[in-house]
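User: Good morning. I'm curious how heme C would be positioned relative to this chain. Could you predict the structure with it bound?
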Amino acid sequence: MVTRYKPMHLKALKALLIAAALSLTSTAAAPTDRSPKKMEGPEECAECHRDEATVWRGTHHYKTFREMPRSEDAEKIAKKMRIKRIKSESLCLNCHFTNQTKGGKTEPIAGISCELCHSAGKDWIKLHAEFSGNKKKENESKQQAALRWKKSEKLGMIRPRQLYKLAKNCYGCHVVPQEKLVNVGEHTAGSKFELVSWSQGEVRHNLWYTQGKENKKATAGRKRMMYIIGMVVEYETAIRAVGKATKKAPYAIKMAKRAARARKKLKLIAKALPRVPELKKILKIAKSAKLKLNSDAALTKAADRIAVEAVSLSTKYDGSKFAKLDSLIPPPDKYKGKPAKVVPTKKKPAK
Ligand code: HEC
Ligand code: HEC
Ligand code: HEC
Ligand code: HEC
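Assistant: Good morning! Here's the predicted structure, ligand included:
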């Protein structure tokens, strides 16, 4: 009798463990709340944000949901990692899919969707969209609007102006701080990521405030801040990843190279902007950070100190006076993928 129920029992336990692993790793790796219980799902956002959703459906982030698990490369990685079903393996789910708990069941429901970048919406989705109880935006006072945004941020919403958090999110996936996955699974150690060029191509969906008439480019000042913050977060993420290295093998080597490259770029940035004290401090911390195996504690400490400077940079400056950086910033022909100029289609495409 007991054995008859065993398979179900195990399955339920496994689902529970996956749900727990998903919420745990998400808080450690990124500032975003990715708990499956708080995921609304991209279709909920699309109810109002139809244009942004249409652009999103043309990206790799959308397509990975169907394509990754079926790809030969995925099969190879899974085999080396002894993984049977990619879509129930929390390690892969964390970076490739949006996971949602509904009716007690946790499942991947989409690729890399809105809430993996803007944070799980349950607590703020209503609040951010209602004009503080006024029916129209015009009827909401400035103070009310400011309070609405402040509350939304407090409840976890990540807005475009929060550059540090946005960048941390991208890097939380685009650097892969998993030694076994890289050394044994031979998964890539991450992307050749850079925030300006990777956010202004296919990913760009600045269509809300232009009512879909124009997919707005980031301003010159914003691009400069994106470039700086992106590079600091690149370095921060890379040294955290080096800290997790225990073996002299591809993972450790690639992450150490990554950190060294980012440090070089940071030196160029600091040279162009000699009067920014945060950059000097970052380089000083970097100089004392030793890229060695088994140095999790020391490198985590250094990364935490760098994070403080990064937050300061992102809140103190708007980039308008940083024109000296412009020659370092990747030009539009280096953008990753083609940006949608306007909304590709007004109709909601079939799923
Ligand atoms: C009921 C309609 C509605 C839904 C559903 C909705 N939004 Fe919004 N969203 C709005 C409105 C309205 C604004 C602009 C408010 C303003 O102009 O002050 C907005 C603004 C935003 C902004 C820009 C914030 C800024 O700093 O300017 C982001 C990002 C956003 N929404 C993300 C999302 C995400 C992600 C979801 C799904 C979890 C979602 N929204 C669901 C109506 C909605
Ligand atoms: C820390 C985040 C992270 C984890 C964990 C992760 N991936 Fe990836 N994966 C990425 C990123 C980022 C890329 C894109 C790399 C690039 O820019 O080329 C990628 C690319 C891939 C690709 C090649 C592109 C594609 O979609 O076909 C495959 C296959 C893949 N991952 C499979 C897996 C499998 C299987 C697992 C679980 C065993 C997994 N990944 C776990 C972040 C991750
Ligand atoms: C890969 C991460 C990512 C995903 C996925 C994503 N966003 Fe964004 N979103 C951003 C970034 C970054 C910006 C700011 C871009 C900039 O400054 O050029 C932004 C900007 C916005 C804005 C402001 C638009 C404006 O007109 O200024 C809205 C609204 C928004 N996103 C909603 C959504 C919705 C809805 C989805 C899902 C359909 C979504 N986002 C998916 C990262 C993402
Ligand atoms: C939850 C994890 C995750 C987050 C957050 C994330 N990405 Fe990605 N991104 C991926 C994965 C995985 C792929 C590879 C998908 C594939 O090709 O199958 C990818 C692919 C891309 C691509 C396409 C690359 C190509 O090969 O053409 C761009 C561009 C990109 N991401 C930009 C961004 C930016 C910018 C941000 C932050 C604003 C971001 N991503 C946040 C996981 C993530």
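Residues 40, 44-45, 47-49, 114-115, 118, 121, 125, 128-129, 137, 145, 159-161, 208 surround heme C (ligand 1) (CB under 6 Å). Residues 1-8, 22-29 have pLDDT under 50 and may be disordered.
Let me know if you'd like a different ligand tried.
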